[in-house]
Design a protein that fits this description.
Helix content: 10-25%
CATH topology of the largest domain: Beta-lactamase Inhibitory Protein, Chain:B, domain 1
Largest sheet: 4 strands, antiparallel
Distance between the termini: 52 Å
CATH architecture of the largest domain: 2-Layer Sandwich
Number of domains: 3
Order of helices and strands: EEHHEEEEHHEEEE
Structural class: alpha+beta
CATH class of the largest domain: Alpha Beta
Shape: globular
């Protein structure tokens, strides 16, 4: 190992940092960079996908779907949820021939406003996808689904279902992920 003496301190420099950069080393680094870039080629959003893209092109770009729903006229809607802590779920609609018609991010207050009392579990899934969290409320005999989304405050959207999987309540509540100190009051 080589080192540098700086006043009273001695810094040890690993041998790898003192090696000459050779053309062979540059080629290896370039290959590694290409492999790393190709590994991360899947897109987070459908932004670069044009209407008419095939199902195969979409899945090559977006990665595996998280769910699929039948649409009228033999079309289908694919759900691409972006993680349990993610705040985006993209729904992509395809015609009967497997061509992309449209895509949209559905975890928005506009989409939440379309969820109405009496809707079924399947209708909610097709509208806004799978929740970030689900919790059984035993005393009320309800299932509570919670959705994280981009909001100016740390809140999430919640949907309650009765035992027949019909919507009985919707609303907004504080997201527990933001409760770092166990309460809002100074100690």
């Amino acid at each position: 190992m080589d080192g540098i003496l700086d006043g009273t301190r001695f810094f040890v420099i690993p041998k790898v940092l003192t090696m000459a950069i050779t053309p062979a080393l540059m080629r290896r680094a370039a290959r590694l960079a290409v492999v790393c870039l190709l590994a991360g080629c899947q897109s987070y959003s459908p932004r670069g996908l044009a209407p008419g893209a095939t199902l195969a092109e979409v899945e090559a770009s977006m990665g595996p779907r998280t769910a699929s729903y039948a649409l009228p006229g033999s079309g289908q809607r694919l759900e691409f949820a972006r993680g349990p802590f993610g705040k985006h779920t993209y729904m992509l609609d395809f015609d009967a021939g497997g061509r992309l018609l449209r895509s949209e991010q559905v975890l928005t207050e506009n989409h939440f406003g379309r969820i109405t009392m009496g809707q079924s579990r399947d209708e909610v899934l097709q509208a806004i996808g799978h929740p970030s969290a689900a919790q059984w409320l035993g005393f009320q005999k309800r299932m509570l689904w919670s959705y994280r989304y981009d909001a100016p405050f740390c809140i999430w959207y919640q949907v309650s279902f009765n035992t027949n999987w019909q919507v009985v309540d919707t609303g907004y509540g504080p997201d527990p992920i933001c409760d770092h100190d166990g309460g809002d009051f100074p100690r």
